[in-house]
């Protein structure tokens, strides 16, 4: 298979919602031993097409007489990839992009599809001047959506929530290349020692400003350049996410429940802060995900982690008053981490934001029953959607006056007014995250 065929297949899988682009790309690169140049072109085609998806669809909508949703999915992938080469790459001649796309349509489709693809691409080239992105003044939403590769409904929501200037800053944050952030496994090595070891090997590493175990790597290394990851001395985790365990503030000799725990980033962090006289139960509703928690705990040498197959929405009926501390790191819309998840940007639907708060409140209510009198309940998400954050917590507090909020930022070094921490990428230069800390009365 040639490079374009591989890219076409990978994009087809991602666009059919059958996998994450980073996993598919790395599996493909492992299976097919491509030479460096082909490897780069393959990666560029897959990630570039995905990043520019809404711009490419904007062109297809204008040029095609058939509606996008009526197009054969493989035909749509071939068109997107062809237009990406024509409109966004400078080094591929237009004729090559067209001819190669026609070949793909013949290979994966039929003669009719090949003719259609040829027509659309040549039409696109003829009408090229029509596809300059409108300016911010001409059409704010379309401009931001096409320039920063975000869905229009999200841009509208952000403008309503933060205004245009902050929305631009937010979109810019999501366009920056994510730095790798690692957490020192402080049960085995201090952050200073880990940092020293990395810098000794000429790695451009610096400490994370807010998470006491966090280290950023400014140049993106291959994972294999960091043997400390394989040795269990460090764990890949975003800085925002590291703050959650500190807000929970686990202590020795405690029983702690992490009720939405897989793959165990926070469970293992909590376990290392609590020490081995505590027991941390990492619960999840998916059996196969529990294995990830176990594997991560074992790899980091943590003997105080146990896993539990358990639905967070019913956990309180079984384990009432059992835990000193409970973390609900709820499934959420993930709007705070759009920098990392390119394909997730296009999968988000307004409906997701509507259906989640009810589920989150159910989980929080059930998990709260596990908290012993005087114990701590922490609720966190990786989103900046108030309906999933402050509104869920306030609805919970209204029904449960036995819980009172405590100032979350007293437990970590990022200061926020009010009780809760809402990290905003455009203000805090961190992934969007929400953390609330509640205490049950005695
Ligand atoms: C935001 S992720 C958790 C990330 C994790 N805390 C970490 O730091 O690695 C949410 C998790 O909730 C799990 N989940 C979804 N619905 C659940 C339910 N009803 N009960 C328990 N876990 C659930 C998902 O499988 C997913 O692993």
Automatic annotation (TrEMBL):
Belongs to the class I-like SAM-binding methyltransferase superfamily. RsmB/NOP family. It comes from the Bacteria. GO terms for biological process: regulation of DNA-templated transcription. The keyword Nucleotide-binding does not apply. The active site is at 382 (nucleophile). Residues 170-441 form the SAM-dependent MTase RsmB/NOP-type domain. The lineage of its organism: Bacteria, Bacillati, Bacillota, Negativicutes, Veillonellales. Its EC number is 2.1.1.176. Pfam families: Methyltr_RsmB-F (PF01189), NusB (PF01029), RsmF-B_ferredox (PF22458). The keyword Zinc does not apply. It catalyses: cytidine(967) in 16S rRNA + S-adenosyl-L-methionine = 5-methylcytidine(967) in 16S rRNA + S-adenosyl-L-homocysteine + H(+). GO terms for molecular function: RNA binding; rRNA methyltransferase activity. GO terms for cellular component: cytoplasm. It is found in: Cytoplasm. Specifically methylates the cytosine at position 967 (m5C967) of 16S rRNA. Keywords: Cytoplasm, Methyltransferase, RNA-binding, rRNA processing, S-adenosyl-L-methionine, Transferase. S-adenosyl-L-methionine binds at residues 260-266, 284, 311, 329. Its main location: cytoplasm. This is 16S rRNA (cytosine(967)-C(5))-methyltransferase.
